[in-house]
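--- STAGE predict ---
source: upstream dedup step, 1 unique chain passed
mode: sequence only
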Amino acid sequence: MDAQGRGRGDDIDPADQWVLNPNTGEYELRLSPSAPQSAVPRPRRPAAETGTGAPRSRTSPKAPGRDIPPQRKRRGVPPEEPLPGRRGRRPAKQQSKAKKAVLWTGGTMAFVLVALAGGGYLYLKHLEGNVATTDVGDAGASNFSKDEAFNILIIGTDKRTGEGNESYGDAGSVGHADTTILLHVAKDRSNATALSIPRDLIVDIPDCPTKKEDGTETVVAGLEGARFNRSLGENGRDPGCTMRTVKAATGIQPDHFMMADFNAVKTLTTAVDGVEVCVEDAVNDKQSKLVLPAGESKVEGEQALAFLRTRKSFGNSGDLDRIKVQQQFLGSLMRKMSSGNTLTNPAKLLKLAEAATKALTVDEPIGNVNTLKDIALELKKVPTKNITFTTIPVKDNPAELVKATVVVDEAKGPQVFDMIQNDISFTEVKAQEKKEKAAVAARLKGTKADASEVRVRVLNGGAAAGSAQAELAYLQTEAGVTKSENAGNAEATQAKTTLEYAPDQADQARRLADIMGLSGSAMKPGQSVDNAQGLPTMTLILGKDFKGAGVKLNSASAATPDVEKSTADKVQCAS
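--- STAGE serialize ---
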């Protein structure tokens, strides 16, 4: 059975399997209409899978010895219509490929929402059974860390499998990387960046080790100067090949992947009762069959899919303009999923979780319930105003007379890649607490010692090889910090440069911060260490954001590259 069919009980509304326990105030899952609730959750098969075919009763007798009331029919809730694609009608044949860019906000956030509903462990295990996994070997991380920054590659394929999708996409496609987003989540969870990768970007696809269905391994030969979307599906390339291609093209290592099918858009948008979209001009697209009035509308199911597939009605009818529309849609979906109407509605939570997981394939290290829940909880920490959507800076492929593909813009692309690698936000991240902001600002205010009185040891904690010695030479010969020394490599690498100092060294710290362009958050009040002469000395650790000797960090890292971007909290209209 494929990922679309596992764990599905077509005649059961998952929300009707939950009842409120008045003793605990939490919702509990009742998988059997008559069986008592066990004090310790035990996995059991839903009645829909027993093969009896008996209809499910919405009431059950009270379990012996328990005060949990029987399930009751929900009042005032009209019967729910079946999900799009399962109503017995075939959608009109379309010519352009579908986009599944909604996945990252659904597949993982659904686990957060279910967890918040209370008593959800058993149901989470059920959701885990919905998720398909792929072994990508060393193309990604072997585990998920809640204490580090992480990169998840979101892939939407143009494969036609799945009920109701026969007339979408390319009939002969094995499932290319039709829509791809690299999601970077900062270590401190203050921000995230969703970087769209154009399917027609010309890249070198590296050789890729893959596992066949029979368990044997093979290496799929790479390609030079190929479209990015060929990194998946063709010749047996799996999502690990797409991950390797992203690393080769950008230098950014994806840690994990999540892949969706056509049904992701239809089922997720239906589960949240539609997503608000906005268009500047009325749309009547003959190819995608999208019809919308000017201004704001709500779309779900087939109409939401049509909105994401529409090409001719937006911009210059190209894929890059459609990416912008997808990003606007994502922001709206995220706002909808974070709203109180979703978070406080158990029925909607469960529908959302079911829809997301049935459309989800992930790498094996995150294919278990606890890890997926952890990822979702970490994503939930990021404020929507600090989630930036942008696209790899590109330009027309100079090798083509008829422009059909693009290449990375070498003037802008490297800075975008460096910012993501160095965990630098594309938005201004402000401290959440006033006290914290005041404390950070205070570190930069006050008297500054003379440069000749600054004592500091310099360590390399992630900068390029030789950076500590180069910066030391600059400090001693150009900046007048003669009481400085090279202390070698730090014990661990870190994303950002930091300066640790004792309270009585604050004036020295402010002087060095002025010389190097250190921010208040880079200054870490702590302890001093003794230098070679036995005198108390500050510790400067050069992180991955270090750009070179004498280059101030505030000017080298704070300037956002000249690229188009948007944030998830802003309502935008497609044009």
